[in-house]
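Suppose you are handed only these lines of text.
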Amino acid sequence: MTDLLEVRNISKYYSYKNGWLTPQRVCALEPISFSVKRGETIAIMGETGSGKSTIAKLISGAEVPSSGEIFLNGELLDPNNHQQRCREIRMIFQDSLRSLNPQLTIGKQLLESLLFNTKWSAAEQQEHVYVTLQKVGLLPDHFDFYPHMLSSGQQQRVCIARAIILEPQIIVADEAFAALDPSIRAQIINLILDLQEDMGISFIFASHSPEIVKHVADKILIMHRGKMIEFDSTQALLTNPKQQLTKMLLQSEQLNKALKHTTTQE
Ligand SMILES: Nc1ncnc2c1ncn2[C@@H]1O[C@H](COP(=O)(O)OP(=O)(O)O)[C@@H](O)[C@H]1O
Ligand SMILES: [Mg+2]
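From them, the structure of the protein bound to magnesium ion can be written out as follows.
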């Protein structure tokens, strides 16, 4: 079976001007390679500034790599062909709730991608929006709601609806659920797992939460200062981590709390 996504030696350098000095170059991502199978879930973990968002942006096409190539179903993705990318790979951003337009109804926002990417009639587009709302646990009535009329959990469902509406092969999420209440977060994660099973979508997500990662990920990619330092199955990294950082990142939040508690008691 060929891999759905193959990332080959992609890297990213940013240049920025610091006053009158010559432009500075920052290496956000050293060349990395990995592949993702259909329906597989990959978690990206690492400290702040380690390159997680950079990987997410390069895969989704929001940034162009400084070197390397990305293949989808064996076909080279053109970094500048947004239409091709936009259908097959969708991104849910870190501040996804703020990405909803407060002045447009949910229905209109969902119709937008269909207008630009399909040749369907108005009635077909509307029907597809209703079906998608139902897929994410919302009602056809929500079509006419404005974002402020929804709870944050429902708004997150709209963001997921927007991500799946073109039936993509891959969803990339960059710490998209960190701001949600733990109970709502659990519901949203379970929704994604259900959609993944129904639609065979591969899911690549950056997360700080060992609980979510252990619950959801088939494989984990560990980043440190722009380098991939480990990439293996969740099981392998839990039972036999080669790096101390992997061990620390995967230590459960509860265990961390318990350790803090015992040290303060001593
Ligand atoms: N637009 C940019 N211009 C300059 N440097 C950037 C830019 N975006 C990210 N970086 C740098 O690249 C590195 C990796 O950033 P990022 O991928 O956002 O890390 P993470 O998501 O793991 O916190 C950081 O050192 C960051 O400062
Ligand atoms: Mg980030």
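What can we learn from it? The CA atoms of residues 114 and 125 lie 7 Å apart. The chain has a mean pLDDT of 90.
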